[in-house]
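hi! just following up on the protien thing from before. the input was this:
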Amino acid sequence: MQPWELSVPNMTIGLLRIAVGPLLALYFDTRRRLMQALVERAERAERERHLLAEQARADERARLAGEMHDVVTHRVSLMVLQAGAMKVTAPDEPTRRAAEDLRAAGCQALEELRDLVGILRTAPEGDQTPSVTGFADLVAESVAVGIPTELIEQGDPALASPVVGRTAYRVLREALTNVRKHARGARVSVRVEYGNAQLRLTIRNTSPSGGPRSALADTGSGLGIAQLRQRIELVHGTLRAEPCSDGGFSVEATLPAFVPTAKSEL
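and the predicted 3d structure came back as:
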C-alpha cells in the first residue's frame, strides 16, 4: 500500500502525525500556565495571610489598652465603694477623713487611667484572665460592696472550653462593673447555663433606686460593651445588652461551648 493511497490506516497515521505535536505543545503550555497560576495564588495567599496577621496583632494591641483599663477599673471601683461605705460607718472623724481621702484617690486614679489608655495601647498581653471558676469571686465582690447579687449555675462548667470561659468571665466582670457605676441600689441576678453546644450567660439588674455614682460613672473608656461584642464575635458568639421594660438592664451572651486553640489543634 502506497502512502498516498486513501485508506483508513493511512488517514489515521496522517491525522496522528498532524495532531499529536500541537496537542502535546498545547498540553505542556497549559500545564506551565496552570503551575504558574498556582504559584502566584500561593504567593498571594501567603501575602494576604501575613497582612491579616499584622492587622490582627494591631487590633489586639488596640484592644489591650481597653482590656487593661476595664480590669483596673473593676478593682479600683470596688476600692472607691468600700471607702465610701467606710466613710459613712466610721465611728470617728479621723477615720472618716482617711476614708474620704482614699475614695478621692481612687477616683483620681480612675481619671488618670482613662487619660493614659491611649499611651498603653502597645503593652504586651499575658492573658491570665480567670475562667468560669472565677464567677463566684466576682459575685462575692459585688455582694461585699453592698450590691445584692445572686449566681445561678446550671449544667457542668467543664463543658466550657478555656477560651469560652475567659470570654464569659470578661462579660460578667464588665456587667457587674457597670451596675456599680450606673445602677445604685439595684439587685443583680447572674444565670449561667452550660450545655454541650453552647454557654449562655445572662446578667440582669433591677431598676436602680438611686442615680449613678458621679465619681464612677464617668471613669469608663466607653468601649467596654463594644469590645466585648468584638471578642464574642471572634468566637462566633452573640451579645445582647439592652434596657428592660421594668427599668433594669440585661446583658446576655451566647457562646459556643468549645472554641479550639492552637494548642488543642495540634
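The helical segments are 8-89, 93-116, 135-144, 162-182, 214-217, 224-234, 262-265.
The chain has seven helices and five strands.
cheers
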